[in-house]
Specification:
Keywords: DNA-binding. With 106 residues, the protein is mostly helical. It contains 6 helices and no strands. Helix 1 crosses helix 2, helix 2 packs antiparallel against helix 6 and helix 4 packs across helix 5. The radius of gyration is 14 Å and the shape is globular.
Length: 106
């Protein structure tokens, strides 16, 4: 039997050891969200939360129940803009990064 590693564990380990990878995931989540693909953005955010602050700490930080956060970041979840913004901000703080918007003309 081949040795395998859980995908979420692999992402979490990579986020912890590679700041550029963590930044790229955050950038991708933001890009997907802004470009009308919130389902994919939420799944990336879920992985980032698991790899950084964790749902319990995030719940304490933004004053929302952890169970609600899990639902918000599920594929069918529907977070408000206020909640999505708070989640992005918490991940930014956890990664100690700044995010700047850039418009690219097609």
């Amino acid at each position: 039997m081949a040795l395998t590693r859980n995908f979420k564990e692999t992402v979490a380990a990579r986020v912890q050891s590679d700041p550029a990878f963590a930044q790229a995931l955050l950038d991708e989540a933001i890009t997907l969200f802004v470009n009308g693909e919130p389902e994919s953005a939420k799944l990336i955010l879920r992985d980032l939360v698991n790899a950084t602050v964790g749902f319990e700490a995030l719940a304490d930080e933004i004053h929302k129940p952890a169970k609600s956060l899990h639902r918000m970041l599920s594929k069918s979840g529907n977070p408000t803009m206020t909640n999505a913004s708070a989640i992005f901000a918490a991940i930014k703080r956890a990664l100690k990064v700044e995010v700047r918007a850039q418009v690219v003309m097609a």
